[in-house]
Amino acid sequence: MTEMFIVGTGVRIFRIEALSPAIAIASLKHAIHMRRFQHTNPEIGMSLVEALDGGQLDFVVMDGQRTRILAGELDGVYQEPASAFLATKFQHIIPLATRLASQLTF
Asked: Domain boundaries in the chain?
């Protein structure tokens, strides 16, 4: 059964339906990769393609309501659960209530 996940890149967030947080990240990476073959895409800019190509794109995954931090990827290394360091990097897109509920120190 698929679930709705929120995947953040730091620049923006995406709603991804997937079986797991890891698959949600993989799906977004695939969509970013496929962007290079499209003339335009209002959801994914070429800066995300360039960041992915350069190994500079990190991810955080939250549940569909943005109430729990589930996983992430930092410097190409998948984390489940996400570390406090990864969550800190994305604190500007993680709601305060979620940060408090996750008991992560920011």
From this structure: 3-101
> Using CA atoms, how far apart are residues 106 and 54, in angstroms rounded to an integer?
27
Do 76 and 55 meet the contact criterion of CB atoms below 8 Å apart?
yes
pLDDT 10s digits, 79-105? 999 998 998 899 888 887 887 777 655
Q: Which two tokens stand for residue 52?
A: 């992915």
CA distance 11 to 60: 11
Quote the CA–CA distance of 18 and 22 in Å, as a whole number.
9
- CA 43, CA 16: separation in Å to the nearest integer? 12
What's this model's pTM, rounded to 2 decimal places?
0.90
**For residue 7, which phi and psi values (nearest 5 degrees)?**
-115, 120
β-pairing verdict for 77-79 and 59-63: unpaired
Distance between CA atoms of 70 and 26, rounded to whole angstroms?
15
Sheet of strand 77-79: strand arrangement: 13-18, 3-8, 59-63, 69-74, 77-79
CA 62 centroid distance within chain: 8
